[in-house]
Design goal:
Blueprint lengths: L1 E2 L4 H13 L7 E2 L16 H13 L6 E9 L21 H11 L9 E12 L2 E14 L15 E3 L4 E2 L5 H7 L1 H15 L1
Parallel strand pairs: 1-2, 1-3
Antiparallel strand pairs: 3-4, 4-5, 5-6, 6-7
Helix pairs in contact: 1-5, 4-5
Amino acid sequence: MFLASSNPGKVAEFRALASESAASFAIELLPRFAELPAFPEDAPTFAENAAGKALHYSRFAEELVFADDSGLVVPALGGAPGVRSARYAGEYASNAERIAKLLSELRGKTGDERKAYFVCAIALAEKGRVLVVITARVDGEILEAPRGSGGFGYDPVFYFPPLQKTFAELTREEKNQHSHRGQAFGKLLRALRSC
């Protein structure tokens, strides 16, 4: 099964999830992904972006292709960063720059105003036809400063109350069990088994 992504953090997480699930397939990057016509992720929802991306890239492969769109939603910021999570501080901003912008936007906000959730939408497609779209969400809050060295993206500031850690402080096993991506991938595996 091919993953349509150039994000090394996502690739690593999906491969770890597949190996931990005893899945009988390997996840590989779509061959020549960087050379293929890019899909503009400009839809208003994570699910539409994931479906569009999977559909687009499935036309370049003989095998199943899946794509995800995921990000952080902060209701007090009108849903930002939302579907623009990767581009929140600019097209080529680093994770640190995105986190700095988020913390700046939340300066002075307390309590419920710091509530946030991660969303992951995964779409599976084959030869130009979407087979399934799955979503998952995990709730938490945004800390005032980063903690932890694991994960990627907004993980260092996303505090997960059930484990009293940020996503960047979780072990790989903890993150795969509790994260939005882990939950969505689990749903995808169940959908594959029923196909």
